[in-house]
Specification:
The protein is of the alpha/beta class. It has 3 domains: 195 residues, NAD(P)-binding Rossmann-like Domain (Rossmann fold, 3-Layer(aba) Sandwich), CATH 3.40.50; 87 residues, N-(1-d-carboxylethyl)-l-norvaline Dehydrogenase, domain 2 (Orthogonal Bundle); 133 residues, Rossmann fold. Bound molecules: uridine-5'-diphosphate-xylopyranose.
Length: 432
């Protein structure tokens, strides 16, 4: 099939590349000329394992193209994906201006029946708005489909190529058939395509993310209580997760959720609730807990040291999670700003996010070339992002480098007993 993908951000680029991989002829469109030029030269603008390789392969096979010309890409396409950003608006709602601008541009370029797909995360009712905008500028036949994306950064290709499920929201039989053909290479009996109406599809995306955020905040609350009553949340987590009704995923307490989705989507769903007279009190609590959690390592450090102004701290991990350079809503930002605000010095290391982090901290922190270099002379080490390379350090070497052997483990990746044996003062999350 001939496909156009509007927007070469995370979602657009991954979707475009994977759809080319399954044999389609895909053209990705972006208004950012610099970005398109870089992509045409084979430079991938984001760090995502395996993406650059797949991009090159499909470009070489002439199945994947990049352009700034929306009309050229849309004219010949049978399916057009809208994958532009939906930034947070002033009252927490999703700002739809990029989506609706794209819809209008697509409408003007339509030449024959086309399926227009909302891939961006958009509030309930957006498919209807997109349909109205397109219908105002064209007489050509088209259908609008809501097809939310569930990919996780760091595992995006795997999530697209082997999804748990594909959600397709439309009332049009014709559009369903085309979308079914497009996704057939990726689905199996146990991970099916779920057909539904557009509003339910839009709601599914928000509800899924809000549920996952709720699980995390719930566990962070339980962890806070575990610390007080002398229980270890790591045992509690395993004990809970073994109940098949609960399951193990997303029960890891930590320094709070970040990224481009959970914080924004929880707020947007609450905004939809408010607009419709339904107060989503549970989500308000989820957010509140998350904000507290992002400050918990700083609070632990203040309790341990009292005054932080003459101290030097090592921070391992800056990205909001491993295998990405994404710094959006990263808990490291809250921690590092807190430390700097208290007059401390910060030496940090992240395997890939240093460049992205410079936009946040500039030269107010020292960027070390390795975890060990960051630990030199440090009064304590904060583990913020659980990159694999941080999991098994040489603790004696680390101890030799640090001024004080104190570790604040924001992801519970170290074993408290081993830490004690190695001579460290260890603080985890929800551990006695
Ligand atoms: C998420 C959803 O998982 C994905 O389906 C959706 O399309 C986009 O949002 P992503 O933001 O890439 O994906 O990351 P995810 O792996 O879900 O983690 C989100 C945040 O939750 C991270 O900050 C992570 O550290 C945190 N988290 C996750 C926990 O604190 N504990 C857990 O048990 C799991």
């Amino acid at each position: 099939m001939k496909i156009a993908v509007v927007g070469t951000g995370y979602v657009g680029l991954v979707a475009g590349t994977c759809l080319a991989e399954s044999g389609n002829d895909v053209t990705c469109v972006d208004v950012d000329e610099g970005k398109v030029r870089a992509l045409q030269a084979g430079v991938c603008p984001i760090y995502e394992p395996g993406l650059e390789e797949l991009l090159h392969r499909n470009m070489k096979a002439l199945r994947l193209h990049f352009t700034t010309s929306l009309s050229a890409a849309v004219e010949s396409a049978q399916v057009v994906f809208i994958a532009v950003g939906t930034p947070q608006g002033e009252s927490g709602d999703a700002d739809l201006s990029y989506v609706l601008d794209a819809a209008e541009g697509i409408g003007r370029a339509l030449r024959q029946y086309t399926v227009v797909v909302d891939k961006s995360t958009v509030p309930v009712g957006t498919a209807d708005k997109v349909r109205e905008v397109i219908a105002q500028v064209t007489k050509v036949e088209f259908d609008v489909v809501s097809n939310p994306e569930f990919l996780k950064e760091g595992a995006a290709l795997e999530d697209f190529l082997k999804p748990d499920r594909v959600v397709i929201g439309t009332s049009s039989e014709r559009a369903r058939r085309i979308m079914g053909q497009l996704y057939a290479p990726f689905v199996r009996t146990e991970n099916p395509i779920l057909y539904m109406d557009a509003r339910s599809a839009e709601m599914t995306k928000y509800a899924a993310n809000a549920m996952l955020a709720t699980r995390i905040s719930f566990m962070n609350d339980i962890a806070a209580l575990c610390e007080k009553v002398g229980a270890d949340v790591d045992f509690v987590r395993k004990g809970m997760g073994s109940d098949r009704r609960i399951g193990h995923p997303f029960l890891h307490p930590g320094v709070g959720y970040g990224g481009s989705c959970f914080p924004k989507d929880v707020k947007a769903l609450m905004a939809t609730g408010r607009e419709n007279g339904v107060e989503l009190d549970l989500l308000r609590a989820v957010e509140h807990t998350n904000q507290r959690q992002k400050r918990c390592l700083l609070a632990k450090a203040v309790r341990h040291f009292g005054e932080l102004s003459d101290k030097t701290f090592a921070v391992w991990g800056l990205a909001f999670k491993p295998k990405t350079d994404d710094m959006r809503e990263a808990p490291s930002v809250e921690l590092i700003e807190g430390l700097l605000g208290k007059g401390a010095r910060v030496q940090c290391h992240d395997p890939v996010a240093t460049q992205a982090a410079q936009r946040y901290f500039g030269n107010r922190v020292r960027y070390a070339p390795s975890g060990y270099a960051a630990a030199e002379g440090a009064d304590a080490l904060f583990l913020v992002t659980e990159w694999n390379e941080f999991r098994r350090p040489d603790f004696q070497r680390l101890k030799g480098l640090m001024k004080n052997p104190v570790i604040f483990d924001g992801r519970n990746i170290f074993d408290p007993t081993q830490m004690r044996e190695e001579g460290f003062t260890y603080y985890g999350i929800g551990r006695p």
